């Protein structure tokens, strides 16, 4: 990843956000990131190939849902909760509560430190 593009808050589109959140795996990733902590891509455990996980993380980033930071060869991701709450008040709270209630994206988890690739 060269330089990741992150839309400015005023350029975040509700249609793109809702489209990105419509995928169960992406919703699971958002649920994991909702605690506000930055996560290394290697910490994310999903039932898909690494290239597919990368595709889903890019879709979230392109929609303005997450921010990706590269440090050397490692990538880290955070949820842009403040930006999303400013653009669409109450949306993320409602989405996360509903996802939790319906266990949406349950196949996504965090690897334990000993399982995470270096």
TrEMBL record:
Annotated GO molecular function terms are: DNA binding; DNA-binding transcription factor activity
Acyltransferase listed as a keyword: no
Q: Where is the HTH arsR-type domain?
A: 6-99
UniProt keyword annotations, A-Z: DNA-binding, Transcription, Transcription regulation
Give the protein name, as stated in the record. Helix-turn-helix domain protein
């Amino acid at each position: 990843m060269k330089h990741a593009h992150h839309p400015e808050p005023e350029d975040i589109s509700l249609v793109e956000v809702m489209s990105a959140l419509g995928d169960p795996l992406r919703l699971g990733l958002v649920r994991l990131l909702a605690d506000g902590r930055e996560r290394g891509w290697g910490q994310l455990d999903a039932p898909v190939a690494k290239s597919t996980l990368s595709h889903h993380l890019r879709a979230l980033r392109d929609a303005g849902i997450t921010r990706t930071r590269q440090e050397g060869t490692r990538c880290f991701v955070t949820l842009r909760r403040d930006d999303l709450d400013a653009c669409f008040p109450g949306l993320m709270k409602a989405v996360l509560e509903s996802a939790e209630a319906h266990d949406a994206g349950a196949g996504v988890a965090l690897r334990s430190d000993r399982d995470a690739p270096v």
